[in-house]
């Protein structure tokens, strides 16, 4: 199976022929493309902490800075036992694409530490977070590189990192990190931002397709932060959420689910499977693979990579896929879906609500002024709607998939910024 970074480069290669039409100087164009296919810088270091029993322990850490032609690098920091240099390079590339698709002034960055955070105490995690912030301190900052939370990190880790960074630099610079607690300069609306952005894309797409919310059935794979907020907001907009799932399996009701009630029950009972077993008359339990194959109008994978793959794609009956997770559809599975005349709305568009509200947090920090939640949501809708319209227009004009259209839009914006700067 190709590595994530090989996939990222392949996705750029897939739109090169279309992009070449815009640039008469082919030699310069090829040089820029080769440059975009590789990160500008990758930093790595072993970080040492003192464990609670007094022993020293080392962890390998990375930060990839992909391309800053459009603005400072931007991207999360993940704590996971399977983090690799290849993965952070791929993720930083995708962050450049994502920021360019929605037109926010950033390039892509990504960081990670090879660690299983479940095996560390809170004080050990605090040490590790602060050591990481000290490691990246020389090459991050509001106008250099703006990190954020990612897998197994959140506002707690951002608070620790901000403290270590500011202590090292001797001044307050809250705009260096986003995804912070509200008390330290976080933004209203950040918690639900990714799901909210996905719901705005759903609405914009539905308008183009003439879909009526109350008659449109939706199945959502994943009931974590993104899956829950997307389901709840889409539900509030009138869409019929007939199935949701978590790692234990899913719940189905053809008449629609009360998402808020389900969330309360999950908080109480721990898993959707447990809810289905306790309330058999109300909820039908289904396996995750059954959810993928449900006869619904829209399938929204909001959990893991490669959820829709060569093994299960032939069973997919939904005519529209809204990718809320990163990379939930394999390239081979997407080819099958496109051959069945299905639409795949790509992750770099659908889940860009998170980084967009991170951008709003950065803007608020730089201005020293907090926006209302209404303003955050209004501006998020404006940006997501505009991005969808641009992608839809390119898809329609060039007769290409939504993913290719998103890449044409994004890579062209990066190329133009590089050429304007004379970086060739």
TrEMBL record:
<feature type="binding site">
    <location>
        <position position="225"/>
    </location>
    <ligand>
        <name>NAD(+)</name>
    </ligand>
</feature>
<dbReference type="InterPro" id="IPR006097">
    <property type="entry name" value="Glu/Leu/Phe/Val/Trp_DH_dimer"/>
</dbReference>
<dbReference type="Pfam" id="PF02812">
    <property type="entry name" value="ELFV_dehydrog_N"/>
</dbReference>
<feature type="binding site">
    <location>
        <position position="358"/>
    </location>
    <ligand>
        <name>substrate</name>
    </ligand>
</feature>
<dbReference type="Pfam" id="PF00208">
    <property type="entry name" value="ELFV_dehydrog"/>
</dbReference>
<feature type="binding site">
    <location>
        <position position="74"/>
    </location>
    <ligand>
        <name>substrate</name>
    </ligand>
</feature>
<dbReference type="GO" id="GO:0000166">
    <property type="term" value="F:nucleotide binding"/>
</dbReference>
<comment type="similarity">
    <text>Belongs to the Glu/Leu/Phe/Val dehydrogenases family.</text>
</comment>
<feature type="active site" description="Proton donor">
    <location>
        <position position="110"/>
    </location>
</feature>
<dbReference type="InterPro" id="IPR036291">
    <property type="entry name" value="NAD(P)-bd_dom_sf"/>
</dbReference>
<feature type="binding site">
    <location>
        <position position="98"/>
    </location>
    <ligand>
        <name>substrate</name>
    </ligand>
</feature>
<feature type="site" description="Important for catalysis">
    <location>
        <position position="150"/>
    </location>
</feature>
<feature type="binding site">
    <location>
        <position position="194"/>
    </location>
    <ligand>
        <name>NAD(+)</name>
    </ligand>
</feature>
<dbReference type="InterPro" id="IPR014362">
    <property type="entry name" value="Glu_DH"/>
</dbReference>
<dbReference type="InterPro" id="IPR006095">
    <property type="entry name" value="Glu/Leu/Phe/Val/Trp_DH"/>
</dbReference>
<keyword id="KW-0547">Nucleotide-binding</keyword>
<keyword id="KW-0520">NAD</keyword>
<protein>
    <recommendedName>
        <fullName>Glutamate dehydrogenase</fullName>
    </recommendedName>
</protein>
<dbReference type="InterPro" id="IPR006096">
    <property type="entry name" value="Glu/Leu/Phe/Val/Trp_DH_C"/>
</dbReference>
<feature type="domain" description="Glutamate/phenylalanine/leucine/valine/L-tryptophan dehydrogenase C-terminal">
    <location>
        <begin position="187"/>
        <end position="422"/>
    </location>
</feature>
<keyword id="KW-0560">Oxidoreductase</keyword>
<dbReference type="GO" id="GO:0006538">
    <property type="term" value="P:L-glutamate catabolic process"/>
</dbReference>
<dbReference type="InterPro" id="IPR046346">
    <property type="entry name" value="Aminoacid_DH-like_N_sf"/>
</dbReference>
<dbReference type="GO" id="GO:0004352">
    <property type="term" value="F:glutamate dehydrogenase (NAD+) activity"/>
</dbReference>
<dbReference type="InterPro" id="IPR033922">
    <property type="entry name" value="NAD_bind_Glu_DH"/>
</dbReference>
<dbReference type="InterPro" id="IPR033524">
    <property type="entry name" value="Glu/Leu/Phe/Val_DH_AS"/>
</dbReference>
């Amino acid at each position: 199976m190709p590595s994530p970074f090989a996939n990222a480069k392949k996705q750029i290669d897939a739109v090169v022929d279309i992009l070449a039409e815009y640039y008469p100087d082919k030699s310069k164009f090829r040089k820029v493309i080769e440059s975009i296919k590789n990160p500008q810088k990758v930093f790595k270091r072993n970080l040492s902490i003192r464990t609670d029993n007094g022993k020293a322990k080392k962890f390998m850490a990375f930060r990839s800075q992909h391309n800053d032609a459009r603005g400072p690098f931007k991207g999360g920091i993940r704590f996971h036992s399977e983090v690799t240099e290849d993965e952070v390079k791929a993720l930083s590339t995708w962050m450049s694409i994502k920021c360019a698709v929605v037109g926010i002034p950033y390039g892509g960055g990504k960081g990670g530490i090879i660690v299983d955070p479940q095996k560390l105490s809170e004080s050990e995690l605090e040490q590790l977070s602060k050591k990481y912030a000290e490691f990246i301190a020389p090459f991050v900052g509001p106008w250099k590189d703006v990190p954020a939370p990612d897998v197994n990190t959140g506002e707690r880790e951002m608070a620790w990192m901000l403290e270590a960074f500011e202590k090292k630099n001797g001044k307050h610079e809250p705009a260096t990190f986003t995804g912070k607690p509200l008390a330290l300069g976080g933004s209203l609306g950040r918690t639900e931002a990714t799901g909210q952005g996905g719901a705005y894309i759903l609405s914009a797409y539905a308008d183009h397709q003439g879909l009526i919310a109350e008659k449109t059935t939706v199945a959502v794979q994943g009931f974590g932060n993104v899956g829950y907020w997307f389901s709840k907001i889409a539900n509030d907009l009138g869409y019929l959420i007939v199935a949701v799932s978590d790692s234990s399996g899913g719940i189905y009701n053809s008449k629609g689910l009360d998402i808020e009630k389900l969330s309360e029950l999950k908080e109480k009972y721990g898993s959707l499977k447990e809810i289905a077993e306790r309330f058999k008359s109300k909820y039908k339990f289904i396996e995750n693979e059954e959810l993928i194959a449900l006869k619904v109008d829209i399938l929204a994978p909001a959990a893991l990579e490669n959820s829709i793959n060569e093994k299960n794609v032939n069973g997919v009956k939904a005519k529209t896929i809204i990718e809320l997770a990163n990379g939930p559809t394999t390239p081979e599975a997407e080819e099958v879906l496109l051959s069945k005349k299905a639409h795949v709305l790509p992750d770099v568009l659908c889940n860009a609500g998170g980084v967009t509200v991170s951008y709003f947090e950065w803007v608020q920090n730089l201005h020293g002024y907090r926006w209302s939640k209404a303003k955050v949501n209004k501006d998020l809708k404006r940006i997501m709607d505009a991005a969808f319209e641009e992608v839809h227009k390119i898809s329609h004009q060039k007769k290409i998939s939504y993913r290719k259209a998103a890449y044409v839009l994004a890579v062209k914006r990066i190329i133009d910024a590089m050429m304007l700067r004379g970086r060739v």
